[in-house]
Amino acid sequence: MCESCGSPLAVHQRYCLSCGRRIGSRSPRLEELLSRVVGRARPADATAQSPAAVESAAVESAAVESAAVESAAQPAPAAVGPARGRMGASALRLPAPRISALLVLVFLGFGVLLGNVAATRPSASLASARSPLKVVLPSSEPAVLSTSTSTSASASAEPSSTASSEPPPAESEPTPAAAPAAAAPAAASPTTSTTAPSSSKGSSEASEGAAPKPAAGSPAKKLPPIKHVFVIMLSDQPYAAVFGPSSAAPYLAGTLEHHGELLVHYDAVAHEELANEVALLSGQGPTAETAANCPDYTAIAPASVGADGQVLGSGCVYPQATQTLPGQLAAKHLSWRAYVQGTDEGGTPGACAHPALGQADPTAAQGSGSGPYATFRNPFVYFQSLVGSPACAADDVGLGQLSGDLANAKRTPSFSYIVPSRCRDANPTPCTAGAPAGPAQADMFLRQVVPEILASPAYKESGLLVISVDEAPSSGEFADSSACCGQPAFPNVAASAPSGLSPRGGGSVGALLLSPYVKGGETNQEPFNHFSLLRTIEDLFGLGHLGYAGLSAVKPFEPSMFTAGKS
């Protein structure tokens, strides 16, 4: 029993755990060891100290005493100074909590700083960025054969158009009102597509009213209510020549990139130009003749229909039964129009121009110097369902009609396909002997046309502008036949593909999206191609998927790409 506080004690207990009192006296040898280690004698009674101090003293004294007892079994050192004892005790103490927390914050801050310095900015993929390291390699995704056909279509709303008489800007730069609205950063690149079932219920829902507009910066769950799609199709250039840092088209690769989203892994699906343009309008793969820009304007025969709705045979004019995007739009009472520069200029053949069936096409030969119009750059005239209809002469027109149609949203078609002349389409082959050619000429065309589109009521209300290239070069220094998105084995040209190799595509060409729903200055690394664009347009207007646009490996543009909202 402790004499001081009355707490029970064990037989060999030396200190009271309640009050810290020493039980019994120290031995003379222990007193001598303590005096040498500590440099002073410990008080025998700690009852006068505070409870916390008593407990601390008791523990420290017990530790010292234990160490002294252990050292007693060995020969004592010659001299142990008090300074050495104090140094050993302090070396075992941890830093104060505040100091420890400060050290953790310092290390975390250093890690964040190091990460920011080493990280790659998304803007490094923009041609207009100042960083010299801006090379974007084409997608190396292996080609995968796919034969499944999807018939789904996204529900989309009919527009409630409002007229505006605001004139287009005179400057080449987009006006603030015409430029896409700013928003919070876009969501991470998606890996799944969003489409609505192609049921009658889905079609009726699509026409009932406009879908709600996404809030600025919020992840979109479905495609926005875009009611006017504009496609400008350039020609025969690789991605780097059009959108890369050395592009000779600074308005496109500099100014416009800041206002849109750049698809850096957007591929053509075949060679040559006509094969890709036909694919975009119908989902059809190339024939041997469309892959040669149709030198002879002949009907496809025997024109049987194979898997995925593909028309089988030789030739380049598709039969009446072949479905097309214009036909889909017309069936849903939506409008389309092709604006083909050169058909309304002096000495040209006029609207819906094409050779007589079975005749040679003198404009098909590259380098012929045949002038600004080439039939193979006007894919609408390769479908009997269109050339045999009054709609071809009414809606396959010259570029001069674009300005009038843009002046009023009600007159602006749901789908506008805009084709620069061969003198302005970026093709490296001059339209006439000695004429300038290449991306610089296309840049002049874009400076004229794009500001008109961006200033139009239809675009401001619910528009999407896509600028792309029909194909990458098929030969020469910059030849590219890369592919993506489950590139199919085109049945009409499969025999000409190298044995054992994946089907060849049309190379990396890139695409730029501009819309009030698209945040400016963004890049997208997901793989897309011309079939993806067709599928996206069909989804926006609630249409079924034609041909290879229905393959399961073909992804439409994702809702998360349209995050800017609309003011």
Describe this structure in words.
This protein is α/β, with parallel strands linked by helices and 567 residues long. The protein contains 15 helices and 14 strands. Strands 9-7-10-1-11-12-2-13 form an eight-stranded mixed β-sheet. Helix 1 (28-38) crosses helix 2 and helix 8 (273-282) runs parallel beside helix 15 (530-540). The longest helix has 22 residues, at 51-72. The chain is elongated.
Return the CATH architecture of the largest domain: 3-Layer(aba) Sandwich
- Summed over residues and divided by their number, the pLDDT gives a mean of 77
Rg measurement, Å? 38 Å
Taking the alpha carbons of the first and last residues, their distance comes to 85 Å
Structural class: alpha/beta
- Described by its quaternary structure, the protein is single chain
Strand order of the largest sheet: 9-7-10-1-11-12-2-13
The domain tally reads 2
Reconstruct the topology from this structure.
Layout: H1 28-38, H2 51-72, H3 82-91, H4 97-118, H5 200-206, E1 228-234, H6 239-243, H7 250-255, E2 261-263, E3 266-267, H8 273-282, E4 296-297, E5 301-305, E6 311-314, H9 325-331, E7 336-340, E8 359-360, H10 384-387, H11 390-395, E9 396-397, H12 402-406, E10 415-419, H13 439-455, H14 457-462, E11 463-469, E12 511-514, E13 522-524, E14 528-529, H15 530-540
Parallel strand pairs: 1-10, 1-11, 2-13, 3-14, 7-9, 7-10
Antiparallel strand pairs: 2-12, 4-8, 5-6, 11-12
Provide the descriptors you would attach to this structure in a database record.
567 residues; alpha/beta; Alkaline Phosphatase, subunit A; 2 domains; eight-stranded mixed beta sheet; two-stranded parallel sheet; 14 strands; elongated
